[in-house]
Fold each of these.
Amino acid sequence: MRIRLRAISQRAEELAIFDQPGTWVAGQVGRLIKEGPAKDLLSGTWLGHPLHPMLTDVPIGAWSSALVLDLFGGKESRRAAEMMVGVGLVAAMPTAAAGLTDFSDTFGAQRRVGTVHAAFNTVALGLYAASWLARRRGRHSAGVALGLGGAVAVTGGGFLGGHLSYGMGVGVDHTAFDQEPSDWTPVVDEAQLAEGQLTLAEVGNVPLLLLRRDGRILAVADTCTHRGGPLHQGELEDGTVVVCPWHRSAFRMEDGEVVRGPATARQPAYETRVIDGTVEVRVREPSA
Ligand code: FES
């Protein structure tokens, strides 16, 4: 079973037929929800956690409850099951909006899987909407049958959503596995740092971004926490805020905090000092 499921998700990664519709949808979403407060809201920047995976619990939970009531609840549970289908439909709206925002930041195989994931969930939404209407009109058996179809579709969508996160790292902090030094570690000659210029270095195996500004040397991880973009290829805003070149998340170089999403996790930041002309760094513990 495990091998078969993996084969399905790998197949979805290769479905080039979805490139065009996926790119079109991502483009429309990108035009509709530009960088700024709305995107930050739907991405979960304000929560410090991706919003979409948290919201999915509500429709999936409501529809799962409806399924249990349909299967085991008997006649007296019909009204409750109908209500659960309705709750799932309402909750699916913000869930889909948050998911589409995340989807607009994907590309390549991630976008293909995201497209199939969205297609499954759209079918589920349609089936549950039809199920709710059938129940409202007293066609209980049809409502249950449509709900069963919705359950199958949403399970497929959920499986691919899990693969996007656990298999492909969408929504995962891309610095989560970095080995950051807690002891002072030399990284670069101070003379190599030009004022106001983003400089790439390395500490252990971790790419490091350095900036000399107004007598200070600031350092954060170079790999963007959002999707792994190379921050040294980005640009500076307001002197010490680095903007990622991929989706334009902005991070404060002083402490790595997110100034603008879609990133939800701060960049690991480093303390710096200069000893005999060599810049040394050690990881800065985030303030509470
Ligand atoms: S990779 Fe998306 S903002 Fe950096």
Amino acid sequence: MERSLLIKEVIPFFLMFASLIGAAILTDFLLHQLQLIWLGRYLGIPGTLIIILSFLYSLRKRKIIQTGSPKKLLQFHESCAWLGSLLILVHGGIHFNAILPWLAIVAMLIDVISGLIGKYLLKRSQKQISSQKKKLMEQGMSNDEIEKAIFWDAITLDLMKQWRAVHFPLTFVFAVLSLIHIVSIFLFW
Ligand code: HEM
């Protein structure tokens, strides 16, 4: 009996996201301990630059640039997105004055989640479901029985596919909100 998608794929995915939030809380805590809270404000700049750098992969994927191995660039995209988000989270800290940059952070976090879903869950889950179907067919199960057996896995997979569809539009929302925040900061510097 195969372990369900939930245990095999969703939990490792959740741990990856939790590591980002955990690292942000830890970094913020250390900055407070070391009396370096001011540094957090400046982390917005490298955070933004690193996230911009991560878009090299998006340019490669859409063939706007031709050089670089797509696989390596994807890894680069993931690492930059993780590190950049970490710096931005620490930058936002626990200060609440303005709503707009916080909306940008919410968009960023949902974006990170949708990216992780694409990475961790979709491909492997699709493969797992089709190999599961094949196995059940070989065991002589009818189509109806197979549908029933994989019902919850198929629902989980459908939900994950929805998530992926939000990755690009959300990046756009995130970029616009961030840009408004950055422009207003520089106007009033
Ligand atoms: C060049 C990049 C950036 C610069 C120079 C910058 C600068 C700043 C500064 C100076 C503040 C303090 C404002 C205040 O205390 O009133 C601030 C706050 C903040 N920034 Fe940024 N930022 C940048 C990028 C970003 C990005 C990309 C995000 C989100 C995705 C972001 C989210 C926030 C949040 C949540 C706060 C706290 C707002 C609050 O106090 O309620 N920043 N930023």
